[in-house]
Structure formats: structure tokens, C-alpha cells
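Re: weekly structure request thread

Next one in the queue (109 aa):
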Amino acid sequence: MIEVNDKGQGVFTIKIVMQEVHTLDVPDLKEKLQQAIINKGIKKLVLDLTDVKMITSSGIGIFLNINQSLKNQLRLACANAEVKKVLELTKVTSVIKAYNTISEALNSF
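Done, posted below.
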């Protein structure tokens, strides 16, 4: 479901290894992400959305929740055109910055 990668100094990337982030998966995904943040001491996080082909509003809610708990230190990277469209329509990108690549997202910190 997720792959955690330590970049050093509290900066991490987490790849969401799911094609669809929909309502049924949200509680489990949210719990796994929150556990990783607490257990690993994550201060800054890039979520890699390479594998995500579709996302629902409840999935987006996770991103907003995590961004708040990380004090706006969440970045999104590698979203496909469909996911980007949903993020823009829901105005998530006005709160959480989205980048085309992981390195762009990491460099934004």
C-alpha cells in the first residue's frame, strides 16, 4: 500500500502503491500514513502518486489532514493528468503544492 523512503533530516518520500484511492481504502491508507509519520519522525513529506490512477474526495481528505498535521510540509508529486485534474478542481493545489517530479518536490523544501 505504501513504500517509505528516508531522504535524511526528517524528509521522506512515500509512494502510494495503489491504482485507486477510494472511500473503502481511505481508513487503512490514512492509518498507515499516520503511523509512518509518527514512527519515523517525518517532518517533511513528498507523496509519490505515480501509481495512483484515480482518487476520490475522501482520498483527497487524507492529503489535507496530513498536510495540516505536518504544518504545511506536504508536497504531492508525479500525479497523472486525471488525478491532477481532480486536485485542481477540488482546489487542493491551492493548499498543497503539486510537482511533476519527486526531485522538484524535494527541492521545494
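The longest strand covers residues 2-8. The chain has one domain: 2-107.
Next request, please.
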